[in-house]
Amino acid sequence: MKPQLVLGIESSCDETGIGLVCTQRGLLAHRLFSQIDLHAAYGGVVPELASRDHVRRIVPLIRETMQAGGCTLQELDAIGYTTGPGLAGALLVGAAVGESLALALNIPAIPIHHLEGHLLSPMLSVTPPAFPFVALLVSGGHTQLMRVGAVGDYELLGESVDDAAGEAFDKTAKLLGLPYPGGPILSKLAGQGVAGKFKLPRPMLHSGDLMFSFSGLKTAVLTATKKPDFSAEQIPDLAAEFQEAVVDVLCAKARAALLQTGLSQLVVAGGVGANTRLRERLTKEISKRGGNVFFPELEYCSDNGAMIAFACAMRVQAGKAVPSVEGAFAIRPR
Ligand code: KG4
Ligand code: ZN
């Protein structure tokens, strides 16, 4: 197959991301516009505002990306866009632009599952992992362990029964009175505190399976703040203990997943993959047991267009590009 040039569009939440990938030359360019400032005043993402801003940003970002990659739209072979999960209105902007552009250029439009983008994003690194590997997907909406055999070969090993890890970070940050976006701010504060001064549970640590639960942890934090002797100076210590509890569970279950599958490579993806403490602990614990951990570059941890273009290019290359919305959900457990 001759090298294919693929444009990727990400608009599932509050980031407009565009990526340009060549199946032979790799990532040529990508651009990102984050709406954090737009939503900060509301303490969270306002779906209606998110959709409208995607409309404003998406075409200029496509132009910029094409220019930065030194290519013209007419050279494109396929367009991948995030089809879900995400905010309906926001997703529709990317889908409408992707499908229309593909129609005008007479090339396929390929819906890409958002989590597949995250899952394959560590392969954008200079030293990418090789199949097969275990993926720990930790984002704002999902906490999942998957066995990844090849592009499109994903087996769900375990997931959260309630809140996702990122969601727990965000909700806990909110109840501690921290500004949006809570996760990274809470994690920064945790760096100034000492874990162990408070005692929080490690939910489902000994459940004997690869399932997670994080909603009780958030409630335990709330209970700690309600104690009469609790003061604002203790917030960094409480944040540190919260982070350690999440990291303890994620590390233990990731190790168990490697053991269960007999694999030695762990790939971490999604926004929480940017967490410094998680990176430190996983690197130490997995390498001690002879395994390897791969993290996406920080810029590819949170939502971005490069990962969607890359996932789409890998599907095109593997002959698994299905130009239908149903096809995108091939990521579902087997
Ligand atoms: O993958 P992502 O950008 O979006 C989703 O697909 O959900 O993940 C966003 C999540 C948010 O919950 C955010 O608080 C969390 O990732 N996050 C972090 C850190 N950076 C982002 N959580 C903990 N520590 C961080 N450094
Ligand atoms: Zn995401």
From TrEMBL:
Keyword Acyltransferase (UniProt): yes
Required cofactor names: Fe(2+)
SUPFAM superfamilies cross-referenced by the UniProt entry: Actin-like ATPase domain
Cofactor binding: number and manner: Binds 1 Fe(2+) ion per subunit.
The enzyme's E.C. designation: 2.3.1.234
Family membership: Belongs to the KAE1 / TsaD family.
Name of the protein this chain belongs to: tRNA N6-adenosine threonylcarbamoyltransferase
Protein species of origin: Uliginosibacterium flavum
